[in-house]
Amino acid sequence: MSARRRGFLLLAALAIAAAMPAFAQTVAPAAGPAAGGTQNAVSIPDLSGIWAHPYLTGFEPPLSGPGPVRNKSRLPNGVANFQRLVGDYANPILKPHAAEAVKKHGEISLAGEGYPTPSNQCWPGGVPYVFWDFLLQMIQQKDKITMIYRHGDEVRHVRMNEPHAAQVTPSWYGDSVGHYDGDTLVIDTVGIKTGRPFAMLDVYGTPYTEAMHVVERYRLVDYEAAIEAHERNLKQIMYLPFNDSGLVVDPNYKGKGMQLQFTVQDEGVFTVPWSATMTYRRGLGEWPEFVCAENIQFYPGKNAAVPQANKPDF
């Protein structure tokens, strides 16, 4: 991505964030080093660059313990069916009202209808919804980390070695602060906006409240570990080696992959905290340029909820 394009995306994201209405939320400081904390540069992992995760229908479940809502609808080979998003509302992590929300979304999908999500309505996904995306570009700097997802205008800004503000203003991607724990980047996010269209934390319509707290842990993993995760994913979630991003996993790259392990807590929705994983490998190709709002007729006969004006505003 050129410096000019990157600057445009970041300015656009800042402009969007500045336009958000302000609602305060009181939070506890994030765990980790206080402001001004330092770490030996040698131990900081190099997570910068473009990472690909070309899979559909949700997060990678953990090897053990409570995990995310998964798709009940399966293809004959056992892989999740992206054309039928039927979340497992019997997952014990869900409180009754949350299970009912997931069930209703699944019933719509089973009836052959699509339901609106942030992705198909061209709205910001938020955290952790956006983690499912095919691409992630990470820019590491001393005092901040910038994370750009596939659509380009989906941008996160992580302040390093700082606590959360005493009063957090909810926003699309929340207030994110980070620090390094040895060879792992830890990001703590609170204040994710709830009063917004299509508020859900996954493609199955799982709800969340203003109390949601997400902790992400990014680390590099050996090539063998990345391949092992890939082979495990092939058995449960849909793999799209060639997708609309134009970027693919570099088949000749034998270096380290990157793994995200994240934990979600929200006592208003979940019975217990739960975890999931996303395993990335180096991408090959040019960073794509997307303008999601160009196609407002996502479903036949239905318009996506793209902001638009029926008459001039001047």
What do you see in this structure?
- With 314 residues, this protein is an alpha+beta fold.
- It has one domain.
- Helices cover 14% and strands 24% of the residues.
- It is built from three helices and 14 strands.
- Strand 8 and strand 9 form a beta hairpin.
- The longest helix is centred in the first third of the chain and has 16 residues, at 3-18.
- The radius of gyration is 19 Å and the shape is globular.
- The chain starts with a helix and ends in a 30-residue tail after the last strand.
Q: Give the low-confidence spans.
A: 1-29, 33-37
- The tally of strands reads 14
Query: Largest beta sheet, briefly?
Result: 9 strands, mixed, barrel
Tell me the Rg in angstroms: 19 Å
Number of helices: 3
Number of domains: 1
Strand content: 15-25%
Strand order of the largest sheet: 2-4-5-6-8-9-10-13-14
Which term fits the overall shape? globular
What is the average per-residue confidence, as pLDDT, rounded to a whole number?
83
Order of helices and strands: HEEEHEEEEEEEHEEEE
Brief characterization of the structure:
It contains 3 helices and 14 strands. It has 314 residues and is an alpha+beta fold.
